[in-house]
Specification:
about 325 residues; alpha/beta; TIM Barrel; eight-stranded parallel barrel; two-stranded antiparallel ribbon; 12 strands; binds ligand PBG
């Protein structure tokens, strides 16, 4: 008898019946850029369709996202140049605008799950994720600051802190500092396998956070390495990470799968700025159909094993999701 796999593809109804992978807005985190002030909506030319919002307008955006089923947000502050320093100490100032913004978002959008970025690069005059001295990144000194950042963010009301720096030992240090200050309920989403990737380009343009000298290869991972990601995975889990992340997503689907098969914590994947802008710009040039390419890229990340997807497409996806499923 001839095998006819096409039978199961013969109508949209049967394709829906046998579909193996679903995307739902609940599994998305929307990364958002925050800028000091009020009534600000700044376009980011490297990320078409994405804006830096002041807290009042960001609250409105988040409410809209929540109406569409997106409940989690990763917040990245834009720090003005004059506030940056080699040790990023503005990040430890109670009066820094990020902290009042988190407090306000907690009040105005109580359903939102707030995930804050623990790292030095947005605050660093050197554009690195750790303290940079004589051409080196100082690990343990940086971890101390990162742990303090996490506590400040928790105190302001962050539900989950997300270290994106790739310093050794930071998950344990952050967990210890949070527990010590009675923030046992604040979770850690660790950027576990974060690769030294060219796909972060548009993000660095958005925050003006590109390294002023050198690159990030002494702390971010070599794109060719997979077994090393497993080492980072077991370290992060033993240090107390509640969720682990692979970043970027699209070029690292095998690593997502590896994490899924070798852990029992939720696996997140970050479809980063370059992945987003490539699809956006190719769509704008009519090289491909943007919506279909967006869905395919997100579906592949989910199929590979991501429980959680961070994507600049989150809101756009959720709007389409509502349209398609209300038909
Ligand atoms: C740095 C950080 C980066 C991103 C998130 N946090 C960039 C970098 O490591 O240089 C990139 C995210 C994106 O490209 O969308 N702590």
């Amino acid at each position: 008898m001839m095998q006819r796999p096409r039978r199961n593809r013969s109508s949209s109804s049967i394709r829906a019946l046998v579909s193996e992978t679903q995307l739902h807005p609940h599994n998305f985190v929307w990364p958002v850029f925050l800028v000091d002030g009020l009534q600000k909506k700044e376009a980011i030319s490297a990320l078409p369709g994405i804006y830096r919002w002041s807290v009042d307008l960001l609250a409105e955006q988040m409410k809209e996202a929540i109406r569409h089923g997106i409940k989690a947000f990763a917040i990245f502050p834009k720090v003005s140049e004059e506030l940056k320093s080699p040790d990023g100490k503005i990040s430890l100032d109670e009066k820094f605008f990020l902290y009042s913004a988190i407090r306000r978002l907690r009040e105005e959008v109580p359903e939102a799950l707030l995930i804050t970025d623990v790292a030095l690069d947005p605050y660093s005059s050197d554009g690195h994720d750790g303290i940079y001295k004589n051409g080196k990144i100082l690990n343990d000194e940086s971890v101390e600051i990162l742990a303090q950042q996490a506590v400040m963010q928790a105190r302001a009301g962050a539900h989950i802190v997300a270290p994106s720096d790739m310093m050794d030992g930071r998950v344990a240090a952050i967990r210890k500092a949070l527990d010590h200050q009675n923030f046992q309920d604040v979770g850690i989403l660790s950027y576990t396998a974060k690769y030294a990737s060219a796909f972060y380009g548009p993000f660095r343009a958005a925050l003006d956070s590109a390294p002023r000298s050198g690159d990030k290869k002494t702390y971010q991972m070599d794109p060719g390495n997979a077994r090393e990601a497993l080492r980072e995975l077991s370290l992060d889990i033993s240090e107390g990470a509640d969720m682990v992340m692979v970043k970027p997503a699209g070029s690292y689907l095998d690593i997502i799968r590896l994490f899924k098969e070798n852990s029992s914590v939720p696996v997140a994947a970050y479809q980063v700025s370059g992945e987003y802008s490539m699809i956006k710009l190719a769509g704008a040039q009519n090289l491909l159909d943007e919506k279909t390419a967006m869905m395919e890229a997100l579906m592949a990340i989910r199929r590979a094993g991501a429980d959680i997807i961070l994507s600049y497409y989150a809101l756009e996806f959720a709007r389409d999701f509502a349209r398609v499923f209300s038909k």
